[in-house]
Write a structure and sequence with these properties.
With about 375 residues, the protein is mainly α. Helix content is about 35%, strand content about 0%.
């Protein structure tokens, strides 16, 4: 089976660049190739000024994996490369679909041999600021996370030596890796570095809420959505764990899902009983398209999620997070009205970034 990507190969291998006046990516053009003498072309994120100027967020990549146009283009190819799986049937994109907010619309993803996972596939966007990944936080970086699915026996079921041999024996990948990293060689470390570079370009920051909140577009939200924003920040206590502007907190918490932890979460990683039932807090951006919800995908709609937080939190759950104190004070029932719940759902849907979900720069290049 061929794994050639002729169009992208030709694009990356072009050599007639001239002088680069800016390394900022033009959204209307494909990534430009590097000068064969100067090496890979540095990349600068085209992030909105309101994020960088007023929120204190800094965009940077690890010192040992600087982002380049060539590395990103290679990473995009590898993200959608089925040669990473044992039978050429799966890629990263198989369980992280762009139209689904780079998550999986299924409750649990299915491996190449039909094995079914036990956790819902997480979104892979806006991860620049995360310090750990997976629901249980076991991976400290995007590079570390990318190692896992390839060898996981219920996912791609492959070995890294097999993947490396396939890519080395391909007519085109060797040159692409050399262009991306400035020297010959293909190994697992370079594969995950390239994938991580591509994933770091997946920024979703252009929802109707952003245009309303940060760009002053007063007509961008309906009155119901504006009322829902009030519930989100006040009566619903959602903002306690899902903070603006990314609508996430970079911690791990037990939100009172269960009285008995059948999935130990972080506690299953570090064997600390006080961490049983603790899971990563996920972003609410694009939450409209990333169903099902929670680590085990138990809720299929946002209405079910809101009902849970309104009156279904298990106050007796071992290791219940301190952020759930408002629920303890309220006796487990926040008392939201049907209108408030409807407005809250409407607001969360206003966090959908349609441009991101359809941006051809993030899609399968084939």
């Amino acid at each position: 089976m061929t794994i050639r990507r002729t169009f992208w190969v030709n694009l990356i291998l072009l050599t007639s660049l001239g002088v680069l006046h800016s390394c900022k990516r033009d959204k209307e053009q494909d990534p430009a190739p590097s000068d064969p003498i100067s090496g890979p072309t540095p990349y600068v994120h085209d992030a909105p000024s309101w994020l960088l100027d007023s929120t204190g967020h800094v965009i940077q990549s690890p010192a040992d994996n600087p982002m380049t146009l060539e590395g990103i283009a290679l990473g995009r190819m590898l993200f959608y490369e089925t040669a990473l799986s044992d039978d050429y049937s799966m890629s990263c994109g198989s369980c992280h679909g762009q139209e689904d907010g780079f998550s999986d619309a299924r409750q649990f993803s299915v491996g190449t041999d039909g094995s079914v996972g036990t956790r819902q596939a997480m979104s892979t966007f806006n991860l620049l600021w995360d310090n750990f990944l997976f629901w249980d936080g076991r991976a400290p970086s995007m590079e570390a996370q990318a190692f896992g699915p390839v060898t996981n026996p219920i996912e791609m079921r492959n070995t890294w030596p097999t993947v490396e041999d396939r890519l080395r024996n391909d007519a085109e990948y060797p040159a692409l890796f050399e262009r991306a990293f400035g020297s010959p060689g293909i190994d697992s470390v370079r594969v995950v570095k390239a994938i991580a570079q591509f994933e770091r370009t997946l920024l979703s920051l252009n929802s109707r809420f952003d245009r309303y909140r940060y760009l002053g577009e007063t007509t961008a939200l309906t009155q119901s959505e504006i009322d829902g924003y009030r519930v989100f920040t006040r009566e619903g206590h959602c903002v306690d764990c899902h903070m603006e502007p990314l609508f996430v907190s970079h911690g791990m918490r037990n939100n009172g899902l269960d009285l008995v932890h059948t999935d130990l979460g972080l506690g299953g990683v570090n064997n600390n009983p006080s961490h049983n039932g603790i899971f990563k807090v996920t972003t609410l951006r694009n939450i409209e398209v990333t169903a099902p919800y929670m680590h085990d995908g138990r809720f299929t709609t946002l209405e079910e999620v809101v009902d849970f937080y309104n009156e279904g939190v298990q106050l007796g759950s071992p290791n219940l997070d301190n952020h759930m104190i408002p629920w303890v004070i309220a006796g487990g029932n926040l008392g939201l009205s049907e209108q408030q719940k409807s407005d809250l759902v409407a607001f969360m849907k206003a966090l959908t970034d349609d441009e991101f979900l359809t941006n051809p720069e993030f899609s399968d290049p084939n």
